Records
---
Amino acid sequence: MSAGHCTTCPYCGVGCGVTLERRADGALAVSGDAQHPANQGRLCVKGSALGETLDLAGRLLHPQIDGRRAGWDEALEQVAQRFGQVIEQHGPQAVAFYASGQLLTEDYYVANKLMKGFIGAANIDTNSRLCMASAVVGYKRAFGGDAVPCSYQDIELADLVILTGSNTAWAHPVVYQRLVKARQQRPQMRVVVIDPRETATCDIADLHLALRPGSDAALFNGALHWLARHDGLDRRFLRRHAEGAEATLASAAQWPPERVAEFCRLPMAAVTAFFDLLSEADNWLTLYSMGINQSSSGADKCNAIINLHLAGGRIGKAGCGPFSITGQPNAMGGREVGGLANQLAAHMGFSASDTDRVRRFWQAPHIARQPGLNAVELFQAIASGQVKAVWIMGTNPAVSLPDADAVRQALKRCPLVVVSEVMAATDTAELAHIRLPALAWGEKEGSVTNSERCISRQRAFLPAPGEARADWWILSQVAQRMGHGAAFAYRHPAEIFAEHAALSGFENQGTRAFDISGLATLTPAQWYRMAPVQWPVNAQHPAGCRRLFADGRFFHADGKARLLPIAPQLPKNAPSAAYPLVLNTGRIRDQWHTMTRTGKAARLMRHLSEPFCEIHPQDAAPLGIDHRCLVRLDTPHGWMLARAQINPGQQRGSLFAPMHWNGQFTAQGRVDSLIPPVVDPDSGQPESKHAPVRVSRWRTAWQAEIFLRAEAPAPAGIYWSRVTQEGATHYIMAGASPVDDWRRWLLRHFPADELTLQTAQLAQHGFHAIGWLQGRVALAFYVGRGAPELERSSILQAFEQPPAPGAPRLALLAGRGAADRPAAGATICSCFGVGEKRIIAAIAEGCHSAAALGERLQCGTNCGSCLPELKKLIQQHASRRVA
Ligand SMILES: Nc1nc2c(c(=O)[nH]1)N[C@H]1C(S)=C(S)[C@@H](COP(=O)(O)OP(=O)(O)OC[C@H]3O[C@@H](n4cnc5c(=O)[nH]c(N)nc54)[C@H](O)[C@@H]3O)O[C@H]1N2
Ligand SMILES: Nc1nc2c(c(=O)[nH]1)N[C@H]1C(S)=C(S)[C@@H](COP(=O)(O)OP(=O)(O)OC[C@H]3O[C@@H](n4cnc5c(=O)[nH]c(N)nc54)[C@H](O)[C@@H]3O)O[C@H]1N2
Ligand code: SF4
Ligand SMILES: [Mo]
């Protein structure tokens, strides 16, 4: 590897450039690429920790058939033959692919081409259905093409930034940092956050609108009506460049501020304060993501937002626009290749002319002529037996799809499940008949497109491990074995990219937004070096294009945009007497999705290390739910266990639980097993944010933690959650039935036979044990009536350096550190491992700003992701001291 190797981060849709350098000690140093337009040198905590997720532990390194190791030839042959057999017997509609916004564009293109052009069904859908489908419908309806108008630079140029349904500080941290910096430089800038709960993103908000879950469309309708009444419309733009304004304004007129306030359950003053900000600002930008898209009326919400921008003429100009920020590194690339079942390829659909055009370009023998099954329908079709073979690549649907227990059951019944994965054990891979080892980030070559249409290269800097192969290679090999050799004879991803680029320009003539024909003639060497560029890249824009629609021309046949009258709707499933609360779900700062990669980094597990459920104090009290007790959540679809977090920033009547935990990390914590498979009728996107739910205290007889040097599975029949640690297996556990003899229990469930146990029997059935082997600590176990109060860092330290006999050993047995080591508490700053207790102590000693804390403890001085939390701690603890 050369010094200063550049690639793109594999996590979120910000799409940061990453530089890797081999340090003198051989380790890889990861830093932000100063030249990359998305991040200009910044990285968030997940990006900074990339180096810690590159080891091969847990990787799938060889093909497997029915659990046994197989060679590639046999595995590929089996996939091709068995798919072929199903197609022969039941037709092409009986097979399906389920892909991912984490595949590279080149991989994605090949998967789509194989299914839609050669197998002849459109049954390829992707996890982007759960993520971007509503945004796509919104853009297509308004602009005639799936085109994101904005650039990140607009964030810096806006006078008013509206963040709705987006916890940017945690989910798009580098975008958030750019906003924070812009705000510092231009203090006149205003930020409005619209989110039912108070999030870290609210740290920067001038106004936080904690609206009733699902009610956004009414707010944006009301804003449109307000602008109409206060001379805030760009009537000239509407006349020249848009259709549908009259009907849309007439329908918005039903939303005076009083009605908006009532519908959204917001104070009237807050509603008008927001509208006034809109009236006063020269330019405004709306960033939106899952709080908008993941709704049974998500597409309509997107159009309510876009209506406002069109009517105000706040589009195609600096600092303006409706900006859907994409989640995955290649969500946008998937949209470009046509990864969704209702798209064909290169922004074409299933009209007769589009299918014919793509057929000719691909020389496809069996072009699909109808949209295929979307994600939710697809797994229902597997359950009903209609789909008999599925190939899942780069996604973990047994965890991330709604009604996830039903998804699991469907996969168990499916005659053929093929999974391409980088990890050996995932909830989905466990259900596969054939497992194909894919190359991971750092090993694979290709390209991705971020939220601002910027195409960047992911480059390999590590050798391919074991027998892992690139996804495009695996797909092409299967295609060849299915008899489509000529169309899939790719030798290099650059050839695939060139074909994809050529298709985007094929008979385009300005009719399709996605046009990168300017990149169709790149040689492999030029493709290898390709610098980040924003599409379109064509004769008109040879160096790419920062902002779309500057000329007021849209992609509908008449060149005009469309405003759509929107009738606001609340979530499809309303709370009831049996399920009185609303379950909101989403992301945490330091984990990525189903944790298959971020779950490997101990550092990323210290911020929040267990599935949790946030609840308002007034909802918790009558249910007898205390802070940090365990709770059980129930819906008609499933149940989960999580640690309660009482949080006054949570809206009353609404709970929040993270989407990340899965069967590998906890006993019963897959939140999607609770989510009903209710979707938006226009986009097919599931309503992942608003499930009616019941919560109750889970009565525990005991709670425990164990640290082991050896690897060991968690006991069955109890609550457990695994916390990744360096050099130790660590479980948090709890049980509903009492245990009489803890020593026996310990020996029965964990490999402790050979250890010398030093134990302490405590009051109220408490029991602590340290297991020694050859002078080293091999086990530490703590159980009590409630959750044991432990200093985990001190316990882990004892695994490295056994404590001396006497007081230090007794301290370890008590779960504490030696007296001279202050307790750290939960990690707030993951970059420098700074714990909550140390931060609170420093605040007590007079550090009353994030800068002062940074100077004293280093916290918040690297990626800055923890700054909102530092400020919150200062607020809580500095004021408490004064008061
Ligand atoms: N750390 C981290 N970052 C990630 C990811 C990750 O797994 N971890 N995943 C990436 C992916 S794929 C995606 S899609 C993005 C998602 O990024 P975000 O959309 O920012 O993330 P979420 O936490 O899913 O949801 C955002 C917010 O929507 C709010 N919300 C819920 N209901 C409503 C509502 O009715 N109205 C409004 N206005 N808000 C509501 C929630 O309270 C939540 O705070 O993050 C990307 N970045
Ligand atoms: N309740 C609820 N559910 C949600 C959401 C929510 O907010 N709430 N959000 C939804 C959203 S927006 C999204 S995007 C989804 C995400 O959900 P998933 O896509 O299921 O989540 P990941 O964990 O990212 O799954 C990616 C899988 O691909 C593997 N992988 C990584 N790299 C490669 C590679 O190069 N090749 C191959 N073949 N495999 C690879 C990883 O190990 C992992 O198992 O979850 C959705 N589900
Ligand atoms: S913001 Fe963080 S996770 Fe997202 S691309 Fe940048 S470094 Fe990666
Ligand atoms: Mo996503």
Note: Residues 87 and 94 are 7 Å apart (CA to CA).
---
Amino acid sequence: MQPATLTLREKLAAVRERIARAAERSRRNPADILLLAVTKVFPADIIRQAHDLGLRDFGENYIQEFEGKVPQLGGLDGARYHLIGHLQSNKSKKAAELFHVIQTVDSSKLARRLNENARPLDVMLEVKLSGEDAKSGASPVELPELIGSVRACPHLRLLGFMTMPPWSEDAEASRPYFRRLRELAETHGLPQLSMGMSHDLEVAIEEGATCVRVGTALFGKRKKA
Ligand SMILES: *Cc1c(COP(=O)(O)O)cnc(C)c1O
């Protein structure tokens, strides 16, 4: 009999299994795919629980929300925090202090602001591959200039690209976006690709994801913030 609710340990095992199978299908090493646990909206305690189970990389969307959790996160060995939500340049100082990786750099101005903090920071460029007005991200034509700006910032280390396709229940609908992101990364000689979430991580891994960002499949449905 299936228990009514799975524990975090069981859900983590299931996600790791999905990653392993998708990696195997695409002849990739699962160790090359980072599982980023997306903890937005959940309390600091869930980060602690996930850390106890061996997770080290955590994704958060909102500066203010994460700032509220930080005092409760002391002593989590090796934890790395990634900002995966849109960042306004007036909040860049705070962001550079709180996070190890900013996955959502989408303008030269923001890159220069993050660089001012003079703390080494890993960054990814958020690329917008759909026409949706509500989404942030740089368009593919803006990338050469943006990459140049980031490379001119001595405190920033450029890892690669991240993207978020238009929402669809059908994971296959994400495939063309993931494929396009990989092509862009190849064109620009960048090694890392942050793409794929709870519902489409297999497709993302088949298309070359090096980081999948998983919330719901680990922690359950989020209440509206
Ligand atoms: C919330 C969020 C996720 C996690 O989505 P799930 O469907 O809950 O796995 C991944 N990436 C970004 C940018 C998000 O905002």
Note: Residues 38, 40, 61, 84-85, 164, 197-198, 213-217 surround pyridoxal-5'-phosphate (CB under 6 Å).
---
Amino acid sequence: MIDPERAAADTPGCRGGGIFLDSAGSSLPPRDVLETVIGHLRREAEVGGYRAARERADDLEEGYGVFAEILGCAPEEIAFTDSATRSWLSVFNAVPLAAGDRVLITEAEYAGNAIPILRRAESVGAGMDVVPSTPEGDVSVEALEGMLDERVKLVSLVHAPTNGGLLTSVRAAAAAARRAGAYVLLDACQSLGQVPVRADELDVDFITGTGRKWMRGPRGTGFLYARRAVLDGLVKDSVDLHGGTWAERGLAVARDDARVFELWEASIADRLGLVAAGRYLLDLGVDEVHAAVRAVSGRLRTGLASIAGVRVHDIGVAHSGIVSFSVDGVPAPKVAELLVERGVTVTVSRRASTRIDMERRGLAEVVRASPHYFVSPAQVDAALEVVEAVRG
Ligand SMILES: *Cc1c(COP(=O)(O)O)cnc(C)c1O
């Protein structure tokens, strides 16, 4: 079992005495991640970026293996990018889509994905349809099966939505979609680093994620998994001299592994920091992290639900470490502001980020608290007291 006090002692940001409940926004990195990034920036300033990168070539290469181990795939199926959204867009834009085709999303869809789907659908004459949820708020696999046909080219799933505790039943939905011949793209931005996300178990074609959230990596980092077997069928037209080769004057050839989605230029310091974050996660153990996040977020959920005038906005059957709530009579931004003033870092999730779910539930904005394993039970209890106090 992970000891929160020890994890906090290894986290420079925990020294200030505040209570950090925003790992769904941008988490606090472990010391090793911080020092890796700063150390490499220093080295670049001493010898130049090219030589500094060459010195770390082995670590950079091993990074693919680290993420392959986390994601349950081969190193050739991993690519690094500068954000989850970049990963998602690269994959999405490589999926062939023509007039009359359809993309299916769920009610948990994130605005950053829905917007490019709608924009591209409009320009090619395709359509976007929403798969209804079960009464509990999870994706309805039965409804999905009824909507699948040969025109459905892609099913977009969000493992853990940005605005609440739902954990989507990815495996069953992915199996149905793949049986019907659609690609399955999983947004694991809010799940990787807090719950196990394995390509070999979930059987999806693509997984995208970020460094800065539950992975505790640097900002401006992202990664993706792309199933080797589907790469051939993709449109590879946003490729540079890293993802491809100018083989002859009139011929450009694209790579046949996932690195076709990378560009040559990248922040090497941040990439090394992300790899360090991946190693840190593997050292702790993905299952141990999952158990610890469940414990700490469970304590927060139960505690919040027991305060009169506070409502926890969970849906689904299995829950992630994201706990969203509201306080009767106090607008969410005000609650967040009062909490932050009292040393409890939380954020606000707004309707425009997860429009379908929020509209369906009649929610405009909610306070989002997302404790990681470095938050102790005593800190959760202290945060609950602060919520009681701001409730008035
Ligand atoms: C934060 C988030 C993203 C986008 O991640 P970036 O790193 O900002 O690109 C995508 N999907 C979900 C569900 C998110 O919460």
Note: DSSP finds 14 helices and 15 strands in the chain.
